[in-house]
Every structure is written in C-alpha cells, then in structure tokens.
Amino acid sequence: MLRVWRRPVVLVLALAALIRVSPEPVAPAYAQARDHAVVVGDVTTVERIGAPALTYQSGRDLAARFIDMAGGVMGSKAVRIVAADPGGDSAAAVRAVEELKEQGVTLFMGGMVADVTLAAARAAAPTPFLAIDARLPAAVVRDVPNLFQIGPSAEALGRVLAAEAARSPAIRWGVVAQDDYFGRALAHAFWNELRAARPEVELAMESYVPTLSGEVGPALDTLAGAAPDGLLLGLRDGDLVAFVQGARGGLLDGTAVMVPQVGTPDMLRALGTDLPDGWVTTGYPCCETGGQPHRAFAEAYRTADPNGATPTLTALYGYAAMITVGTVLDSAWSEKPDALTKELAGLTLSTPVGEMRFDPGTRQSSLPVWIGRTLGGQFVEARRVDPSARR
C-alpha cells in the first residue's frame, strides 16, 4: 500500500516566510540529547563539478534543517549527514562507501557523475542509494535493486530532446556526448526516437568526451569537419563550458542544437555570454511554477543563502532527496535496508513542484522535466513535460 508522508513538508511551507535559516551547520541541544542520530552518507563529486554540486548540498541541508525543526524522524531521532567527495573516481567512491558503512550509515545519497554514482550505489548494497542528477540510464537503475533515481534518466532526456529535434528541418545530425553511461544512453535514446519520427535523418558524426576531462578539442575538430545541420550536445558541467567556449567564432552558427539541462541558473551563469540563442534545452524555470509551495521553497532557499541566490535544479533535487529520506524513515519506521528499500518502491511524497512518486518497477522518481530554449542568457518558453511519456 502506498503511503504519503507530508508532515515536514507542511512545516516547511509554514516556516519558509518566517524563519531565517543560518547557512552554518547547527545542532540544536534537543537534537544532541536524542538516543542516537540516523546517519545519512553522501557520496557526491563536489570539487570537480563546482556550482551544481554546491547548490545541491544547499538544497539538501535546507530540507535537513526543516526536518530537524519538525522534531527529527521516527519520533525523535536527529538526521546526521556525513559526506565524502570521490573526486569523480569510481574506485574512490567505493572506498568512501565502505568507510561510511563503518560509521553506521542507514541511507546513502549523492551523484552528479553517472559512472561514479553507479559504482557507489553498487558498493552501498543492500543499503538504499538515492542518485542525484546522475542521469543514469533507466535500464542500469533497474539492474541495481537498492538504487533510486532523483532527476530524469538519460533516456528520458534523450526522448524529450528528440521530440523537439523532430520538428527541426535539420537532416544531418551530429552527436557530442560524455563517454559514460549518461552520454551513451542519451545519444542512443535520442537517435532511436528521432529516427522513428524522421526516418530520413542521417548521422553525420559522433564524438565522445572523457568525463570531467575538458578534452573537447577532438570533438570540436570532428564537428568542424562534418558540419552537421543539427547537434545533440550531451556534455555537462565543466566539459560543456569548455566545449561552448571552444565553439566560439561561429562554429555552430545555423546549427540546431539540442542540449540537456543548460536552462538551470548555475549553468546559465557558467556559460554567460558564450551561450548562443535558440538552443533547445531542458532546465528549471525557478520559480514560476508550482504555486505557493514552490514560492515558499524559493524564499526559504534565498533566505538561507549568504548571497540570496535563487535555487537551482540541483538544489531542488537535493531538497527532494532529503525530504525522501525523512519520508521513508517515518513511513517504514525502521533503519533496516530491506524495509527501507521496500518502502521506497512506490513511495509518494510532496515536493515544492508537486507530488513525487518512485515507480515500483524502474525506481525512477516522477519529478518533471521542463523544456524551452535559450535567449539572452536566459531559459525561456519553458513548459513542463512528463519524462516517462513516450512520443
């Protein structure tokens, strides 16, 4: 039976406009007096990712504070987050998980890099692992029983972008993507969906960039030689910035570009004036959707941030992940891995952008995807789509 847990979320909405949340870590005296804390292990590549990972942590910590203010979980237990940065290395992620297990971790969360997140989740088994913006293929997630994904799968992003690409007159398409689970699955899903809608399209070139390497020169050379009409650009974070900067000078003039997750505040800032107009992308129109719950979340985030920054998509993911932690602990009323995994499958909860549910079969969250285009360094004409829908 599905259970819906709403108490901390309701408290968040009530307190958002009233309480100034300190950005420094705090541990209330009453929390220290509880029997013991539930330990949550976070294995996220932070330093090499930069702003998206940092804002993810801010969203996570905001939710953790509200849960603590609501009295903790499972009656009176505090939640303690212990984090490790694997530096984008899968072996380091496995070692971090093993060390965190020794500290009594009840749940794991983290992500940002697909292959590293997958390695961490496998090492965490049977303890549940919430993957944050890892963009892992749905097929891979299904094969790891303790893995649950917050943020769209690679295939979902590929399908959403392919639906837009099918409306373009471009015939000769190129692919530049990460050389990892995310990039390969994104390209595969995009191409299959586009060919189904437009059988006449051709693959003019493809090039894969080592993840977090910044080595985009070979991809730029291949792109210049092939001169496709359209391009799927499946890079992220620093690799994407390096590619866009390398393409300055008109390399992509007249090219229909489809790129995931550029329309988020942190990526828009990172790309700045180098970001061309007219690129079709997914992103986050904060905070123009979701009504009062979303506005309350945004206000609470701005209040907590030292610079009064607007929440990003990864901040939303971090917030949703931490609320999921509180939800499943209260719902299962247990710290045993099998009980938590069983409860997470099909779990339904409230988020700032509406109800979220984990599909029992795919263990994929139902958080929405927004798609629009770039204009003047902004994400415009955004509309919400169902990432699970087939087109």
Compile the SSE list and pairings:
Blueprint: E1 4-5, H1 7-15, H2 29-32, E2 38-43, H3 51-69, E3 79-84, H4 90-101, E4 105-111, H5 114-124, E5 129-132, H6 138-142, E6 147-150, H7 154-165, E7 172-178, H8 181-197, E8 202-209, H9 217-226, E9 230-234, H10 237-246, E10 256-263, H11 265-271, E11 280-283, H12 291-304, H13 313-332, H14 337-344, E12 348-351, E13 354-357, E14 369-375, E15 378-385
Parallel strand pairs: 1-12, 2-3, 2-4, 4-5, 5-6, 7-8, 7-9, 9-10, 10-11
Antiparallel strand pairs: 11-14, 12-13, 14-15
Structure in words:
The protein is α/β, with parallel strands linked by helices and 391 residues long. It has 2 domains: 228 residues, Rossmann fold (3-Layer(aba) Sandwich); 148 residues, Response regulator (Rossmann fold, 3-Layer(aba) Sandwich), CATH 3.40.50. Helix content is 40%, strand content 21%. The strands form 3 sheets. The chain has a 7-stranded mixed beta sheet, with helices on both faces. α3 links the parallel β2 and β3. It is globular. The N terminus is likely disordered.
